[in-house]
Amino acid sequence: ELSGHRRRSKAGEEQPSKMAQAQRVEDLERVKEELDEAVRTSDEVESKLIDAKRIDTDLRAELIAAKKELEELRTKDVENKISVENAQKRDEKLMSKRCLCISQRELCMRRIQELGSLPPTNELDRYKSLSISALMKRLESTNKELKEYVHVNKKAYDQFVNFSDRRESLLDRKTEVDREAEKVKELVESLDQQKDEAINRTFRGVSAHFKDVFKELVPNGAGE
User: Fold this and answer.
1) Using CA atoms, how far apart are residues 114 and 108, in angstroms rounded to an integer?
2) Cα separation of 73 and 194, whole Å?
């Protein structure tokens, strides 16, 4: 009986020991699974982080390229403005030269008007062979005859021609100035539109990539 009691006592002691060992094995398996899951999660996070870094690098490269393009557009804009200013200066010089020519032309016209209406060319040819003294005598005689017609406006026709020419000249000048002003306006509008399109294109590209990166980093979030 004593021997049987000892065997039963030993068996009773071994039973809790096996249960504890099984529990430890189960705990180790669970810890191992949790560790494996943590490793997988860490790998996924590391992979996403690598992708995020790559996307960030690409975005930075695109942003640098966009800034470079913007700077080039700004440089081109400055060059175009300088070209426009130079064109305006050339136009001003041409207009000044034109005004000077018109002024000289008007001066010549006034001198011609002071002489009155010129006779036809074939009439003038009659006096080419005369000397200066003979021409002066003919002029003196003619002036005496003209004194009889002092009450007549001898310059009416010449004045009409002069005013008509001046009117046409001013109309041509106005048309030319309006045409040049329209060209300058179109050039400025075109440059402004190119600059705005470049800025908007850069902003949209950066905004779109930012949303993708933010979505990768925060799956349930939304980047604006």
Assistant:
1) 10
2) 8
Q: Model pTM greater than 0.85?
A: no
CA–CA separation, 176 vs 137, rounded Å? Answer: 48
pLDDT tens digits, one per residue of 40-98: 888 888 888 888 888 888 888 888 888 888 888 888 888 888 888 888 888 888 898 88
Q: What is the rounded average pLDDT of the residues 27-41?
A: 84
Angle (nearest 5°) at CA 214 between 49 and 210: 110
Instruction: Work out the burial of residue 163: count CB atoms within 10 Å of its CB; fewer than 13 is exposed, 13-18 middle, 19 or more buried.
Output: exposed
